[in-house]
Amino acid sequence: MALQLSNKQIGWVKAAVFVLSLLPFARLVWGTASGAFTDPLAEITGISGEWALYFLCITLAVTPLRRLTGWNWLVKLRRMVGLFTFFYALVHFIAFLWFDHFFDVAAMLADVVKRPFILVGFIAFVLLIPLAATSTNAMIKRLGGKRWQWLHRLIYVIGPLAILHYWWMKEGKSDFAQPILFGAIVAVLLALRVFWHVRRKPQTVRA
Description:
The chain is mostly helical.
């Protein structure tokens, strides 16, 4: 039997997820302010980037988990989790712009063009911006359901780009365990969508 929650229970779950989602950011603030980080740039960049990937995977996992378990209330968490994906990607980007380039946009863009892994990550971040900007109910109504859905399918492009960015970033360190894990998770989550789409297509044609 599928787990069903009342609106009040969903509200409590959303509040708990919100607070838990802020804990990595609180760690960044505390570590920087207290001097606990020996290399603040590396810590902020690394932690924020990894948490952006965690939330990206969780966002992509909502639909498969809902379909496999019947927990339809999970959809009500997807928007918030998706916005936390953007939030940590924004922190990751600001760390790069601030600590690496001291808000020198020209120098940042030159670095983006020169280093492929930064270019790929920058593209993924730019593609996240319209998704975050259109996450409200008002924007869904303004765009219309179908156009909004098509726009938010950019997440299927952003996922592989984010994994490629992470892989290339780790290449110099020869540490591929985490990129492989993230890549496998994203690949499975996208493959499930392809499988369900292909299986549903003949039924649509017969109808």
